[in-house]
Each structure stands twice: as structure tokens, then as C-alpha cells.
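Homework help board

Subject: predicted structure for assignment chain

Our instructor gave us this sequence and asked us to write out the predicted structure in C-alpha cell form, then describe one feature. I got the C-alpha cells but I'm not sure how to describe them. Can anyone check?
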Amino acid sequence: MGLTYVTDRISNLDKTGTAYETQFLVDTGAIHCMAPREHLLAAGIQPEGKRAYELANGESVEYEVGFARVSFLGDEVVSVVAFGPSGSEPLLGVVALESAGVVVDPVTKNLKRLPAMPLKRSNHD
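My C-alpha cell output:
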């Protein structure tokens, strides 16, 4: 099973300062994006609170979170970003992916843009 990476650029909401740009691991098991705390602070992104997360190994941790502009594949969305520990691998979470209308092809592991984003009520409402 291969891993999927994409170049992301994370900046503060005002687009001031120097954005953080690097390869992010596309993690469809992660709800939010995560990047090392020092890079988010350097990009001018400020913590707005804390959230509890469950890691892949089942461990529960609490990280500060903030709001950021996340740019990838020619699109830009605003998403919650977790302030990860120093040296942590940057993650692109499913909320940012879906907000940009991007999915991971389960066969090729490549990212692909949906032809249209769903904007309809489900039959369960």
C-alpha cells in the first residue's frame, strides 16, 4: 500500500507573513490538517483553542488548533489545523480534501478532483 503526498501551502487567514510550504501526507483517516507548531507560528497562524485527537496507535492526545488557509492542487480552503509536535509529519486531513472537492482514488492512491461537489439534501433528512 503506497502513501500519497501533495505539496501544500499553509498561511494565516489574512495571507500576511511567510506561508509554510512542504509535502504533506494525505491522510484520509485524519479529520484535520496538522503541521509542526513552530512552522504554523512562523506563518502567523495563532492557536484558537485545544482539541483532543486519537492517534493511529489509539493514544489520545490534546493539540492546540487554529484556522488557516490551505492551498493545494490549485485550490485554497480554510481549515482547522492542529499544532503538532516539533518534527511531526505534516498531514492533510479529510476536511480540507473534501472542502476542495478532492478525493483519493482507492485503486491508484492518486488525488482526483470531483467533477462537481454535492450540494443537496440527503434522503435521510
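Reply (TA_rk): Your C-alpha cells look well-formed. For the description, you could write something like this. The mean pLDDT is 91. That's the kind of observation they're looking for.
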